[in-house]
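Changelog-adjacent note: as of this version, every example in the card shows the full chain rather than a window. The one below runs 363 residues end to end.
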Amino acid sequence: MLMALVLGGFCARADTVKLNDGTVLEGDITAEDDATLSIYLEFSGGTITQTRQINKADIAGVVRSTPEQKAERQAARDYEKLQKYQLNPKDSYAAGYYDQIIKDVFRTFLTEHPNSPHASNVTARIAEWAAERDLVAAGNIKFHGRWSPAAEVAPLIERERGQQLLQQARSLIAQRRFEPAIQQLQVVVHMERQPDLVSLAKPLLASAYQPAVSSLEQKWQQLDKDISSAQHRVDQARLTLGAAEATLTQATSSGGSQSIVQAQITVNRARGELNAAQNYLNYVKSQFDTVSQKLTTLKSQASWTETSTTTPPAPKVQPAPSTTAAPPDVLVSLAAWVKNNWVAMATIGAVILFLIYQFFIKD
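Full-length structure tokens:
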């Protein structure tokens, strides 16, 4: 009934636009000029929204809500949004969460809509949330609908969480999603108060390391190849740009306006390709570094697991291995020159050998 009244309030106080074909639109008029009108519409309780622009020639009539009606409509809309903030009948929240909702949600509503008919209800909800906050601040936890001292229920909460993580890890392993499974299992193996869960998690963790390492090694090898391919693309784009700039210089010297324009277009395209190639190379290198870091960490943990039966150390961030630096521009240009002139170089070499033979060896 409450929701029906709220939605009814939306309709009663909304701007109404009636079209020539009989369609009636109810919402908020957001913009208007001599030819068109824009109206903001909401459907399914505000989960679907649309701003529709309508030609005024298609409008039969408009009923505009007053500023007071708009304010009531906004208050009703804001009150509807409050309904998702409910106390959990089974479990409590962290103390800071209660304070956040009380301040940022409930008190904000009262500040913006002090005369709302829902103000008393919101005030009562603030009192309920504050009462639970005080219980939590005093060291209590609501677990499965029952309040108890935190020290008593903490092991139960930890155990329940460990069981959930084990179940999720098994499911992830079955899906061959080994990395997230390892993350789940690493949490469980550090639950010192749950030795039975730890004993279940350790063999699963050990079995997940090898396929995870193998998968990362495949990614690492592929990314290594991708870096080489991306670097080649950058080198080719740089050579293409150099050729295009040389053509532009030649066209500028000859003075042909049409050829200059065409040469400039070619240069711009070559620069765009070089930028795209360089950005892709940087992206692949960053992916390579990320995979290298993960691979180093997983190999370290897997190696440790094979030689130890105690709890594995918490994961540490390993420095990413350095990748092979891109060759300097000078080397790139030299390599390109050799590639393009190898026939001439071979001919010159043959002539030199012939002369050496004629003047030294033959004599």
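Structural remarks: Confidence is low (pLDDT under 50) at residues 1-12, 315-334.
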